[in-house]
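Deliverable D2.4 — example input (structure tokens):
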């Protein structure tokens, strides 16, 4: 074997490991049987993603996306009523049932996601034309609950409910739900495979849950452990600086894992400035900032998934299988202005290249200061476009949000093989990443994670990951992935995306930034901690309040006698008693006599006290209103003596009316009266 290592600082050592590597064979042929058991084996086989599927399948998505979205050149393309959109309504066995999935087989559901404010209805699974559903249960028990299996195959994550247990069907599968009048709304996404008619598929059943309980339990345990210890038979170990590289000049090998860490004065900036580049058989297919390649986003954000891991001390790892015919080269280059020390290991194993083997690709792009339109989709933003044959296996979205309001109403739109309408049309960015309701909570799981949500609210640096195992998307001619930039506030956001895919020789990403443009982007400074400055016209927020502060459109609530200035308000939510929101109040004339406030009252608003420069003013304000959303004007008399200049107005939550269901606060204007 011949291995070449170049480094700017130290001599690198070759270390040999005697670990058992996985076979790279994938079950193939039309006579191959697809079953719950075979799909579980595929899910935990790292080599399965790097070979074009055999038997082949098409992966699509059924979802509750707004059916008003018809075409990109028609009104409604960014429509956002994504709940309770069904195929049809049926009367089955005396029940009124809404059909959310109806597919001809052979096929398999490979990811099922739902969310709702509450769960009061049931799902019914009709396999292969049966008149009575053989699988049924309460929706939150089946999806994200323990009725079929336990975590991580079935688990709630930040208010999204996920089921990754595969559900194969031989001829067809119909899924319905009941009690929608009581339920109210339901959001759903179902990723599913369709095989050719010649493929033998064994339909899912309750009996298999019992028969395969040990295999299901073992899969859950394997996914929880992530199997990061299964790295490969050989390892090259290297210290260095910018420009360090390792050559593996030996045929029929596959990289199984890469470990990396760096040392720099400004670590967050260095992790963005330093780029990993990988060549396979003389072609560069990977170019990406290291922190995004390894799933961390901006800075060190510990998390563990099936394909990437970031540890507390800063070590980052990936476990993608990357086969090649003759040779591979892994290098790191820093484009920042600081000294960076690197340490990395490359683990690899023997691998027999076949006609189904594919090269690993990773693309990265960023766009800064995208202007958003409050309460509407701004535009479709491209993740990736590929010409050729391959399989899409995941992505990492790293963004900078300059407002606490929710940024991610945007739906994913994925086009396979020149489709005129996307076969994957989503219901929201956070739904695509497996959570819901714009939650800033940390979560990690084998195939998705949110390792970073800086806050407060949805402000600052955010990182979302989604990796695809059974829900990978094969394509024969082309692949295109767009996502809507859809923000509730008028602000600017920075989007950066890392995409992972495998391609047959000759497949390439198109419409990508030039090398010079990419270097310009990674050379710009990033900060782990974002300076807090919410842009809400008419208000300057002086603190970082708990909860979420955003601009809310009040036009739909306005009526005679209850009108909000400019039809908007500053809206403070998700806070608790004792929390404070501090506004900077400029005073142009000394010693105003009173303070006039325009405030909102409703059934979910709280009790508040006001403090001007730390001194309590006025009495307790009760903003509870049981019957409607109202606008009221409050006048606070007897202000302390105030000089010209900036002063602070603290709004403090002290509780809520016994009838109120929340602690919300809303203000649309203030005025100092002489």
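Example output (designed residues):
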């Amino acid at each position: 074997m011949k291995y070449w290592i170049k480094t700017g600082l130290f001599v690198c050592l070759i270390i040999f490991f005697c670990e058992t590597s996985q076979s790279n064979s994938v079950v193939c042929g039309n006579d191959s049987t697809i079953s719950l058991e075979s799909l579980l084996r595929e899910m935990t086989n790292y080599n399965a993603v790097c070979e074009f599927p055999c038997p082949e399948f098409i992966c699509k998505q059924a979802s509750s996306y707004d059916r008003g979205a018809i075409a990109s050149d028609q009104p409604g393309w960014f429509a956002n009523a994504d709940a309770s959109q069904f195929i049809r309504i049926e009367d089955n066995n005396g029940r009124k049932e809404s059909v959310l999935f109806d597919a001809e087989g052979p096929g398999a559901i490979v990811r099922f996601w739902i969310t709702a404010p509450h769960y009061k209805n049931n799902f019914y699974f009709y396999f292969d034309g049966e008149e009575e559903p053989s699988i049924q249960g309460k929706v939150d028990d089946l999806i994200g609950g323990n009725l079929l299996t336990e975590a991580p195959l079935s688990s709630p994550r930040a208010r999204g409910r996920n089921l990754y247990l595969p559900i194969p069907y031989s001829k067809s599968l119909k899924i319905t739900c009941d009690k929608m009048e009581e339920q109210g709304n339901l959001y759903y996404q179902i990723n599913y495979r369709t095989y050719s008619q010649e493929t033998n598929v064994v339909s899912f059943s309750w009996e298999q849950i019992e028969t395969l309980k040990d295999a299901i339990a073992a899969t859950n345990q394997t996914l929880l452990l992530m199997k990061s210890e299964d790295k490969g038979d050989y390892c090259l170990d290297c210290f260095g600086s910018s420009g360090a590289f390792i050559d593996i000049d030996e045929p029929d090998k596959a990289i199984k894992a890469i470990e990396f860490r760096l040392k720099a004065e400004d670590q967050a900036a260095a992790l963005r400035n330093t780029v990993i580049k990988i060549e396979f058989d003389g072609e560069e297919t990977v170019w990406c900032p290291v922190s995004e390649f390894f799933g961390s986003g901006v800075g060190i954000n510990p998390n563990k998934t099936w394909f990437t891991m970031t540890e507390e001390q800063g070590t980052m790892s990936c476990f993608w299988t990357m086969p090649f015919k003759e040779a591979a080269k892994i290098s790191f280059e820093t484009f920042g202005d600081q000294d960076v020390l690197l340490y990395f290991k490359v683990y690899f194993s023997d691998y027999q290249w076949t006609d189904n083997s594919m090269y690993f690709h990773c693309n990265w792009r960023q766009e800064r200061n995208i202007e958003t339109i409050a309460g509407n989709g701004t535009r479709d933003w491209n993740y990736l476009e590929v010409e050729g044959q391959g399989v899409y296996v995941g992505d990492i979205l790293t963004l900078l949000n300059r407002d606490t309001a929710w940024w991610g109403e945007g739906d994913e739109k994925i086009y396979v093989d020149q489709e005129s309408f996307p076969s994957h049309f989503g219901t929201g960015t956070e739904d695509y990443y497996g959570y819901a309701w714009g939650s800033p909570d940390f979560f990690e799981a084998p195939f998705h994670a949110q390792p970073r949500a800086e806050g407060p609210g949805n402000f600052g640096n955010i990182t979302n990951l989604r990796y695809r195992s059974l829900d990978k998307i094969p394509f024969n001619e082309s692949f295109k992935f767009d996502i809507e930039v859809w923000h509730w506030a008028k602000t600017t956001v920075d989007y950066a995306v890392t995409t992972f895919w495998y391609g047959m020789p000759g497949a390439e990403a198109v419409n990508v930034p030039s090398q010079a443009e990419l270097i310009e982007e990674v050379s710009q400074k990033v900060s782990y901690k974002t300076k807090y400055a919410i842009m809400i016209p008419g208000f300057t927020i002086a603190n970082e309040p708990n909860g979420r502060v955003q601009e809310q459109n009040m036009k739909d609530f306005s009526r005679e006698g209850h009108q909000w200035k400019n039809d908007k308000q500053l809206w403070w939510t998700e806070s608790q008693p004792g929390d404070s929101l501090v506004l900077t109040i400029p005073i142009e004339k000394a010693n105003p006599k009173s303070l006039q406030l325009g405030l909102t009252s409703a059934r979910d608003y709280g009790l508040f006290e006001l403090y001007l420069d730390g001194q309590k003013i006025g009495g307790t304000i009760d903003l509870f209103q049981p019957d409607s959303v109202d606008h009221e004007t409050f006048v606070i008399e007897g202000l302390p003596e105030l000089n010209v200049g900036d002063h602070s107005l603290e709004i403090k939550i002290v509780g809520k009316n016994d009838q109120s269901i929340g602690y919300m606060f809303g203000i649309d204007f203030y005025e100092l009266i002489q």
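Residues 213-225 form the longest helix (13 residues).
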